[in-house]
Amino acid sequence: MRIALTGGVLAVALTLGGVAPAQAVGAGSTAPAPIAVQGTYRDGATLRIDAGRIDWGGTASGASVQWMRDGRTIAGGTDERLRLAASDVGHRVTATVSATVGGQQVVAASEPATVQPGATSERRLRASLAALLKRLPGRYTVEARELDGGARLVRIDAAEHREPASIFKLFVAYGVFTRIDQGTLSYDSRLASGLTVRACLRAMIEPSDNYCATDLRQRVGTAWLNRLLHGHGFTGTTFWYDGHRTKTTTTADVARVLTRLARGQLVSKASSARFLRLLETQVWREAIPPGLPDGVRQASKPGTLWTRTGIVQTDSAVVWGPRSRYVLVVMGSNGATTHAITRISKAVYRELEGAGRAPFVYDRQQMRATGRLVLTVAASRSSRVLGTYRAGTKVEVIDSRRTRYLVRIAGRTGWIDNAHLVLRHPIL
């Protein structure tokens, strides 16, 4: 604590709970006197202070609270609690506490903070999505979670158990990176197929290869992976349960894994960066990305699967919008479509980030050659050669078998190695 007498006003500098210093209120005073404010600055939330915890450096009397909006007193804002309303959005709110110490007036203040959209925006988005879902083919569960800003959250049937299609590879990757962080696995470790963990991680995410997903799941251990997931709060996600060779998850669990990944809370810093980069460079961007403006950064993992009740269409993404980051997960069944997920994505972006410019356009020739490509008639490298292609050639990926990709080049369909392929439209 530091006490200074300036212009007849006693300014007190104190630190509460690690809160950054604010400017004290007082004639000619610039001494820091921070107040800790609890709560999120968003409409619908309640902010709280504890005036009794302020260390005034002496006996204080006549303490009074005043909340300020853009430097002006808020009518009725004289309690330790302040409930924020929609009318506060976009305005800077400050808490001040005045007291008399040793015959001098002392005023402490919090850092001004801008109120973000919150409850009102959530209600609007939920109503908008509910109306939209009624008009779309298929059935959908949705979670949109803002990671900063007003921390808005909208869930629609997000706890419902669903077939995840290829989204399940997010959880396999989580297990692999956890094993790497623990030191029980390395990127150079060999799998049953003979490929390295590094090579199969890329193939599992980039073209969503099922063979590498199986290799990696078996290497970390299915039982161990289930224990990891359930022990870390992903209780709605299970692989090969009750003797059934199947898998299940919830939209909430998928959103949770992406939220922790984006916040650096899922795996180590190095593993987080590598995990996100894999999701940024995967080739299937037909669902959530076209609902975003062109140039908006996103890291996504979609999935498609035919079932007896119709097609399952899913997508999940971390989006870095101009105002805030958010996670969006959409899981569709019973004939769901990528176009429907795009419409959901567009509605979420518009509410959380505002109007955007021209949308991202998915290019089916997703990749280009960085070196010589040899196109063969079958997945085997020894099969008949259909043609060779030079660096710069545009490549459409159709399917994969580990590091061998089924592609279409200049009207010809065949198999190539992935060693000389990169995404044509990288996320910068």
From TrEMBL:
Residues covered by the Beta-lactamase class A catalytic domain: 144-331
Keywords associated with the record: Signal
Segment forming the signal sequence: 1-24
Organism domain of life: Bacteria
Pfam family for this entry, one: Beta-lactamase2
PANTHER family associated with the record: BETA-LACTAMASE (PTHR35333), BETA-LACTAMASE-TYPE TRANSPEPTIDASE FOLD CONTAINING PROTEIN (PTHR35333:SF3)
Protein name according to UniProt: Beta-lactamase class A catalytic domain-containing protein
Organism: Amnibacterium soli
